[in-house]
Amino acid sequence: MKSIETELKQLNQNLHTMIAAENPILYSAAEQLFNAGGKRIRPTVIFLISKLLNKNQIVSIEQKRLAEITEIIHTASLVHDDIIDNCDTRRGMETVHTAFNNKIAVLAGDFLFAQSSWYLANLNNLDVVKTISKIITDFAEGEVQQGIKSFDYHISIEEYIEKSFYKTASLLACSCKATTILNKSNKNIQNDFYLYGKHLGLAFQIIDDILDITGLSKDLGKPAGSDLINGNLTAPLILTLNEKSKLKKMIYQEFQFKENVNEAIKIIKNTNSIQKAKDIAEEHIQLAIHIIKRKYYYTNSQELLLLTYYLLNRIN
Length: 316
Fold this sequence. Notes:
Elements: H1 5-18, H2 24-35, H3 41-53, H4 61-84, E1 89-90, E2 93-94, H5 96-99, H6 102-121, H7 126-148, H8 157-182, H9 187-214, H10 217-220, H11 226-229, H12 235-241, H13 246-252, H14 258-269, H15 273-295, H16 302-313
Antiparallel strand pairs: 1-2
């Protein structure tokens, strides 16, 4: 995204400064994550919305700081996710709990959440604080829901979508809304971009879950099929359960044999469940695009629309 290259470069520099800690182990644990890179989807969305809504197409200092805060919150959630899912690699690098241990990883995640809260408070905007604080509550709710439904083949698509909102879409929805609050936009605009972020986030999660079945480990940055191993039942699997009862037995046995995971992936691929899951993701992408095209189809909305289409094309 050419128009925000400068902002993204500055974001990467600032993140290292913002996570500085006196304790060298804590610092190196946090830095490990940022060195692993990532797609920076959330800051990109914030920067593009900021430019879209600002008459002079600039990103304010507060909006830049918001982008940094959301990336720190996202990264903190990954540290805790990796512990819960017992994931050894992330983006091709050792996860924090693998490089150090679980205790350090938990503390590193807590430290990042605390740092994000500190910088959030310093924005001196109560509405933004309320909006962004909800994300951290939603993360916990999503993790609890996922834990309760672990290896539970009775899970419905509706429950899966709700859990996906808490774990992924809430962050995008709330950060998009907070961007508009910092732009002093009215409630209608705030609500529009909240919904835009929500639909984008849901599509992003569904696509991620499809890639866990269809992708290669080297492209995913984590082992393929790791959702199945961890009992995290996602859209492609849920949509296959009605057709293939053999899967229920494997889930009941918690995929105890490695060949079970490979067989389950093969079963899912031999149905049209991946296409059905993709259709659900596309529905959310179209709802997000509709919001932009209906009300915000200015000359500088092209990059935001391109990013939205790009998320869907990750599985083509």
